[in-house]
Specification:
The chain has three helices and 13 strands. The N and C termini lie far apart (about 40 Å). β6 and β7 form a beta hairpin. The strands form three sheets. Strands 1, 2, 6, 7, 9, 12 and 13 form a seven-stranded antiparallel beta sheet that branches. About 10% of the residues lie in helices and about 35% in strands. The longest helix is centred in the first third of the chain and has 10 residues. It is mainly beta and about 210 residues long. The chain is globular, with a radius of gyration of 19 Å.
Length: about 210
């Protein structure tokens, strides 16, 4: 599924949004995802119900380049996700950072930004799994874990103003039955143990780019 943030549902507005790259995609669910980058977002911004207004006023949306860096400090990102109304709850939101190091080699790092159920990262910073409510005999799941919406403001703790970088948000649902699980029950199949029966659907936003000042 592909989503476009357009000002109106017209051909011209949709093409304008695609040209701005203000788009995101999911592996199937109809999640709503907002992602903004800037230099002055505050943690309280993630609690606002006019989040889009805050994002556009104080930063740039997914698909854009970060504005000029006017003072010291790292970029801040405002991200929000709402579950599919008839889908699964959300496990977590991550921000994926890619950059070229000082030797010109591509690097990547994944940061957990917001998550459900009051979990706490361990000593190594790893977040525990959200859990699993999947019943493969039906198959189905329950939304007794996870959250209907998640959001937060994240500041890059490893920011180097001299290096090019990009950032995109990844939203992950709680575990649900994979299509193979439905086929297995419907057709009474005996599947190889190597075939996965569960999945965690997700969404990916367009990146926001940072370019050092020349």
């Amino acid at each position: 599924m592909t989503a476009v943030w357009a000002v109106e549902n017209t051909r011209a507005a949709l093409f304008d949004a695609m040209e701005r790259r203000e788009t995101y995609a999911t592996t199937g669910p109809r999640m709503r995802v907002r992602f903004f980058g800037g230099w002055g977002f505050e943690k309280a911004d993630a609690l606002r119900r006019d989040l889009a207004l805050v994002g556009y006023t104080n930063g740039v949306p997914m698909g854009a380049d970060l504005p000029r860096r006017e003072s010291d400090g790292a970029p801040r990102f405002l991200v929000y996700a709402l579950r599919d109304p008839i889908g699964a709850n959300l496990d977590r939101i991550q921000i994926v950072k890619g950059w070229l190091d000082a030797d010109g080699k591509p690097r990547e790092k994944v940061y957990d930004v917001a998550w459900s159920d009051g979990r706490k990262p361990d000593a190594n910073g790893k977040l525990p799994p959200v859990g699993d409510t999947v019943d493969l005999s039906i198959p189905s799941w329950t939304n007794t874990i996870g959250a209907s919406e998640l959001g937060g403001v994240w500041t890059d703790p490893d920011f180097d103003p001299s290096l090019r970088a990009f950032y995109y948000a990844r939203v992950i649902e709680i575990p649900t039955p994979r299509w193979t699980a439905y086929d297995r029950v419907k057709f009474g199949l005996k599947l190889s143990p190597e075939i996965p029966l569960k999945t965690q659907e997700r969404a990916y936003t367009s990146p926001i780019w940072y370019t050092p000042e020349s």
